[in-house]
Design the sequence.
């Protein structure tokens, strides 16, 4: 939605906060958290200053990928209520400027990571940026309702990067953390898309509720939370994490299944569309964020205690 | 031989981009806002560049002190 103010803003120029908004700060906060956890639980010591720089590089790389994503998706962002006030569709930043900003920050983040830690971490960071920009944003997002499933890999990389920054290699534990975020992403995003499906439909993005319907999506949310439970228990079962983590994973997993069950059992019409304003889906979406924070926090706490 | 005077600049062949700092149609408030935002952007850029130098310096100090080498 363009306001009169935003129409003449490009001539005046963008504020620094508009450039910061290109980096998707809220998404980056979760990425920073999972990256830091990967670093903390790794069985190797990294100088604290280099560790902070490594986390900064993860944040910068994620933000840069977000900026390129906003450049590519500027056409659909403009027609979605949730995204129409982003700096490019609002006319505050020129698309070319956003692309250049994203590319420069991507290169800088990878180079700094290589300097501060090792080539393995830098390579995984570069792969994560390419994965998000090319595989998710440019290839999958507008083509398949499974976009979130495969694209979820992009958000799963930070824990691996953090681990690689400390150890210089990739072990079983970071692969399990990758898998956890990978399988957490679909129920998280599909909960969101259930109450934002009109937005996605208007933009022509083939999200699952748009293509297969709300009922099919509700079942998928439940199925993925059921897969997630044994997966989150695997680090404890394999002896890679302690009882504190195992207990937390069990409680959180059961709670997530309960939220997903409520999404499935929500009062619906014959098409599966909610008659309650998608209250259970909103609750599941909020809980999913808390879920990941607590699960990864427990993983770090378990290692530190 | 008499020197031929240089031809006057022709707007059609002059390809140098012209930087328009102010739009004549702007009100004083808009011009003030433009200058304020430009100043803010410049300070941000300065901070980013200084931060980048600081990070590279810190990496060099830590790595040379701790490992005796950069790579």
Sequence:
């Amino acid at each position: 939605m363009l306001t009169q103010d935003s129409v003449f803003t490009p001539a005046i120029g963008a504020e620094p906060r508009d450039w910061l908004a290109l980096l998707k700060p809220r998404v980056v906060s979760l990425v920073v958290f999972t990256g830091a956890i990967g670093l903390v639980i790794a069985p190797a010591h990294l100088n604290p200053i280099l560790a902070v720089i490594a986390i900064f590089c993860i944040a910068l790389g994620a933000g840069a990928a977000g900026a390129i994503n906003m450049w590519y998706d500027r056409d659909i962002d403009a027609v979605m209520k949730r995204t129409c006030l982003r700096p490019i569709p609002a006319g505050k930043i020129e698309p070319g400027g956003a692309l250049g900003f994203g590319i420069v920050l991507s290169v800088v983040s990878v180079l700094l990571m290589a300097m501060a830690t090792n080539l393995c971490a830098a390579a995984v960071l570069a792969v994560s940026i390419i994965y998000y920009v090319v595989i998710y944003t440019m290839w999958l997002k507008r083509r398949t309702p499974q976009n979130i499933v495969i694209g979820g890999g992009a958000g799963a990389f930070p824990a691996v990067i953090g681990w690689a920054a400390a150890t210089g290699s990739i072990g079983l534990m970071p692969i399990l953390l990758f898998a956890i975020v990978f399988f957490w992403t679909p129920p998280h995003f599909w909960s969101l898309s259930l109450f934002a499906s009109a937005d996605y439909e208007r933009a022509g993005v083939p999200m699952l509720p748009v293509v297969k319907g709300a009922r099919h999506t509700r079942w998928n949310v439940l199925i993925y939370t059921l897969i997630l439970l044994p997966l989150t228990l695997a680090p404890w079962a394999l002896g890679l994490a302690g009882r504190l983590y195992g207990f937390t994973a069990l409680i959180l997993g059961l709670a997530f299944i309960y939220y997903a069950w409520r999404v499935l059992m929500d009062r619906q019409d014959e098409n599966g569309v909610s008659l309650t304003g998608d209250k259970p889906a909103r609750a599941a979406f909020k809980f999913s964020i808390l879920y990941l924070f607590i699960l990864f926090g427990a993983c770090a706490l378990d290692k530190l205690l | 031989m008499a020197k031929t005077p240089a031809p006057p600049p022709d707007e059609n062949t002059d390809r140098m981009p012209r930087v328009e700092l102010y739009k004549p149609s702007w009100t004083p408030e808009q011009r003030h806002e433009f200058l304020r935002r430009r100043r803010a952007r410049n300070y941000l850029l300065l901070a980013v560049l200084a931060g980048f130098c600081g990070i590279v310096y810190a990496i060099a100090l830590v790595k040379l002190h701790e490992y005796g080498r950069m790579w």
About this structure: The two ends of chain A are 50 Å apart (CA to CA).
